[in-house]
Structure formats: structure tokens, C-alpha cells
Amino acid sequence: MSLMPVSEALRKLLHSAAGEPPRPCETVELAAALGRVLADPVIASADVPPWDNSAMDGYALHTRDLPRAIDSGLPISQRITAGMAPEPLQPGTCARIFTGAPLPAGADCVEMQENIREEDGTARFAQALRPGQNVRPRGQDLTAGSVVLGAGHVLRPQDLGLIASVGMARVKVCRPLRVAVLSTGNELVEPDQPLGPGQIYNSNRFTIRAALQRLGQDVIDAGILPDDAQQTRECLEQLASDVDVIITSGGVSVGEADYLGQVLRDEGQVDLWKLAIKPGKPFTLGQIADKPVLGLPGNPAASLVTFVLLVKPYLLSRMGVKRTTPLALPIAADFTWDKPGGRDEYARVRVGEGRLQLCGSQSSGMLSTASQADGLALIPAGSIVEAGQLLDFYPFEGLFD
Ligand SMILES: Nc1nc2c(c(=O)[nH]1)N[C@H]1C(S)=C(S)[C@@H](COP(=O)(O)OP(=O)(O)OC[C@H]3O[C@@H](n4cnc5c(N)ncnc54)[C@H](O)[C@@H]3O)O[C@H]1N2
Ligand code: MOO
């Protein structure tokens, strides 16, 4: 059976997300809006800055008075600090002015104080200035009525500052999704419990929960589900009545105990399965009782990679975010890759001396190499890599934000 290219899987995921009802929204204080998704565009109600102001500590004057300013100097007729409302500048004079202070009417430029000699209330200028020099004009940053940020924008620290700069204290944002996280497998035990024969600790639960928290979603931890068809069916149906999205790990491959996939096929529907991605081939998109189920493969690295590359764009799209694909940076490989694979491989890599270095084993059962890595590098299906070749690098910072 041929594997579905990742691009096609992503298209289907985003199409499926677009078919869901839009998120309800809520109004939050700006200080609590970090990472939230704007529900409405933010429009500037006034110009920023609201008036022309000085970019330097110095002296404001009109360029027409420059010949005299250089020749014999100009009397200083006022002193303007930030926060003051200045008087209009008397012709033939200059004003002492400080960074951020409003430019007085009648002045059109500012000279920095390092270039001025001040003596007995007179400022002597040394050089010519252009109109507008060292002046930050009204509306330089934003003009009244312009779109400050569009709907679907994920708010970062600089965005909160920008919104505050137009005087807004609250924003309308999308309500987070209720997302259930379900771990499947008889072998799983929670940390702090003794390990019995054949058992391992449930690590995916923590990776996935934390990744969802980073995205600001409401996480419902549904615990561990044993490998049992009846319990899988009941658990999925119960979760479907309670949450917006179900994310599972494990049980989606072809094994006899891979009940997650089986129950979806028998009781719900499977829209995506078997992708040309490594790690992560058995990633599944399905539905149960009309609720989406995103089935991550159990192998920890496969779970991580499919979360950041497939689940995250789906969730962002559900939240109304427009740009859902992660930012890729072209960086030269410091390794060779001789055997072309049949799937797009997302290799765990470090950046050392500006080049991508493989982080040891790329086994999908290993998580330590993911923790050593700075991000993922794409080695496209059917490709070899020569040292120095540019690869798309996806830093974890961008993948998890
Ligand atoms: N005959 C085939 N076997 C497998 C194929 C295949 O195409 N044919 N695909 C392999 C690939 S690729 C992957 S990836 C895995 C995924 O299988 P499942 O999603 O069904 O996952 P499990 O079998 O339940 O578990 C796989 C592996 O991961 C460990 N695991 C599971 N859950 C957790 C957890 N919460 N925390 C830590 N580790 C977990 C589990 O113990 C297994 O070792 O299938 C291949 N097989
Ligand atoms: O996704 Mo599996 O981990 O490709 O080997």
C-alpha cells in the first residue's frame, strides 16, 4: 500500500479543521493574552506616535534658521521634556528638547546635543540638517484606522506591546479547545510506580500534555487505556461527548493489539492513515461520534514529530490561525546521508558551528536524541544528502510555540 505524502496529509488535516464550527471567543485583559489567538482584527484608534517627536536629546529648530544657527547661534527659547505640551517655537530661536518630547510647532528638525556648543543661552550649530532629521513623525508606527494585527494572529510579547500602544487594555481572543490526551498500551506505567516485567513508563503523556499547554489548550488527561477493544470503544465514546478533540498515543499500527485504529475503523471512521513520514508512519486522523481523533504512533519520537508537524497545524487551524506551517530555515548539513528513504525523514539535529549535525540514533523509540537536538531537519523521501547541502531546519522553539 502506498504511503500518503505529508503535504497531502496536511492538506486533509487543514480541510478537516476548516469544516469544524468557528471557535467561540472571549475578551481577556491584555496582560493575560500571551499566546492567545486574536478573534477580531485590532484597529488603531489613533496615530502612534500621536505627534511628531524628537528621536534625540538635542535642540529643535526650523531649517530656515540654519544659516544663522551655524553662523552666530540661536537663542534657546524653551526647554521641552517628554510628557510636556510645548509652546510654538518662536521664529529665529531653537528649543532644548529631549528624546520622546513633542516637537514644537514651527520646528522641523533636531540636532543631537553632541554636535552643539551651548553658551549663555545660545546654541551654536556646526552642520546642516535636513527637514525631518531626528524627528519621529506622527503616525510613523501606526496610523489611525489601520489594521494593527489581523484576526488569527497568535499574540507574542511584541504584539501585546503594540496593542497597548494604541491604548487598548483588552482583546477578543478564541476560546481554547478542550483536548483529551489518552495513552494506550498494557505496558504503560506512570512515573513513580514500580516497573513490572514488560512494563515501561508513560512518557508520551508528558510530552503531549506539555506541547498542548504551550499551545494554550485546555488539556483533559484521560489517563492510560489498556489494550482492549471494548474499553477503547467506551472510552473514546465517553470522551467524544465531553471534548473538542481527542489525541491518543499508541495502538495505531497493524498489530493485533492496536485497538485504537481498529475501533476507529469499526465504530467511527478513518480519514488518514499510513503517511510517508519518518518517524510517524501510522499517524491516524479519524472520527468517533463526530469528534476528531488524532492518533499519534506510540514510539516517543514518532509521537513528538507527528504532534509538531501534523497535530499542531490542525489545532492552530481550528483556532482560526492562518499561518499554521512551521518556519523552516535553510542550514547546511554537516553530515552525509547515503541511503534514500521512501518517506520524508525528520531527523533530530543539533546546530554546531552553523551546520546541522545528526544527534546520534534516529530510532523512533528514542527520546534522548530529541532532548539533545535543537530541532528537526527534513531529508525528503528519495534523497541523499551531501555535506554542505542546505536542508530545511525546523527549530524546536518554532515547532512548540
Ligand atoms: N508490522 C509492522 N509493524 C509496525 C509498523 C508497520 O508498518 N508494520 N509500523 C511501525 C511504526 S513506523 C511505528 S511508529 C509503530 C507505532 O505503533 P503504534 O502506534 O501501534 O504504537 P504501539 O505499538 O502501541 O507502541 C509502539 C512503541 O511505543 C511505545 N509506547 C507506546 N505508548 C507509549 C507511551 N505513552 N510512552 C512511551 N512509550 C510508549 C510502546 O511500548 C512501543 O514500544 O509501529 C511499528 N510497527
Ligand atoms: O513512525 Mo515509525 O516510528 O516511523 O518507525
Automatic annotation (TrEMBL):
<dbReference type="InterPro" id="IPR001453">
    <property type="entry name" value="MoaB/Mog_dom"/>
</dbReference>
<dbReference type="InterPro" id="IPR036135">
    <property type="entry name" value="MoeA_linker/N_sf"/>
</dbReference>
<keyword id="KW-0460">Magnesium</keyword>
<dbReference type="InterPro" id="IPR005111">
    <property type="entry name" value="MoeA_C_domain_IV"/>
</dbReference>
<dbReference type="InterPro" id="IPR036425">
    <property type="entry name" value="MoaB/Mog-like_dom_sf"/>
</dbReference>
<dbReference type="InterPro" id="IPR036688">
    <property type="entry name" value="MoeA_C_domain_IV_sf"/>
</dbReference>
<comment type="similarity">
    <text>Belongs to the MoeA family.</text>
</comment>
<comment type="pathway">
    <text>Cofactor biosynthesis; molybdopterin biosynthesis.</text>
</comment>
<dbReference type="Pfam" id="PF03454">
    <property type="entry name" value="MoeA_C"/>
</dbReference>
<keyword id="KW-0479">Metal-binding</keyword>
<dbReference type="InterPro" id="IPR038987">
    <property type="entry name" value="MoeA-like"/>
</dbReference>
<keyword id="KW-0501">Molybdenum cofactor biosynthesis</keyword>
<dbReference type="Pfam" id="PF00994">
    <property type="entry name" value="MoCF_biosynth"/>
</dbReference>
<keyword id="KW-0808">Transferase</keyword>
<dbReference type="GO" id="GO:0061599">
    <property type="term" value="F:molybdopterin molybdotransferase activity"/>
</dbReference>
<keyword id="KW-0500">Molybdenum</keyword>
<dbReference type="GO" id="GO:0046872">
    <property type="term" value="F:metal ion binding"/>
</dbReference>
<protein>
    <recommendedName>
        <fullName>Molybdopterin molybdenumtransferase</fullName>
        <ecNumber>2.10.1.1</ecNumber>
    </recommendedName>
</protein>
<dbReference type="InterPro" id="IPR008284">
    <property type="entry name" value="MoCF_biosynth_CS"/>
</dbReference>
<feature type="domain" description="MoaB/Mog">
    <location>
        <begin position="180"/>
        <end position="317"/>
    </location>
</feature>
<comment type="function">
    <text>Catalyzes the insertion of molybdate into adenylated molybdopterin with the concomitant release of AMP.</text>
</comment>
<dbReference type="InterPro" id="IPR005110">
    <property type="entry name" value="MoeA_linker/N"/>
</dbReference>
<dbReference type="GO" id="GO:0005829">
    <property type="term" value="C:cytosol"/>
</dbReference>
<dbReference type="Pfam" id="PF03453">
    <property type="entry name" value="MoeA_N"/>
</dbReference>
<dbReference type="GO" id="GO:0006777">
    <property type="term" value="P:Mo-molybdopterin cofactor biosynthetic process"/>
</dbReference>
